[in-house]
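agent> fetching stored inputs for the fe (ii) ion docking request
agent> found them:
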Amino acid sequence: MSLVLDPLPYAYDALQPYMSAETLEFHHDKHHAAYVTNGNNLLKGTEWEGLPIEQIITGSHGKNAPVFNNAAQVWNHAEFWKYLKPNGGGKVPGKVEKALIEGIGSVEKALEDLAQAGVTQFGSGWAWLAVKDGKVAVSKTPNAENPLIHGATPILTIDVWEHAYYIDYRNRRPDFIKTVIGNLVNWEYVEAQLEKALG
Ligand SMILES: [Fe+2]
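agent> prediction call returned; pasting tokens
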């Protein structure tokens, strides 16, 4: 199988009260799982079957929308889970701080811009911090798109599809984003991705 559904890296209730077990059960076990099932069915017999997921994403982009959409959503979600942890948020590690200052001006501006990207993404999509040409930048993408297709390496993402927040926050997407940044971000994972991206 090309695409796999990894379990969450924490218990379903581990992110409460900021993200409920009910949200994680629906988001991981229904939404994320459906992208895996649908993606594997769509990949059968295509040139991308059996390739690493990043190659499926970049290879199918612009060529096969159903394969791209499902594979990218599998990857986006698998990464999103890893960027969260219980007792997250708080102080940004030194290496990340330095990269945010160099790329965006300050940590505060980077986090404000990231939140604003998520708030202003019209409809479904994702907000990102990603490294391109050695610099961190903020971006937002619609639907399943991600920075990989623009030659950038993500170091943090926030899912702003309604299914990410509607159970816990109803229509209050800005509150969800603010809470993720303030209370759930796994900065150690961000730092590890940044180190990989900078080589
Ligand atoms: Fe999602």
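agent> quick read of the result: The mean pLDDT is 98.
agent> awaiting further instructions
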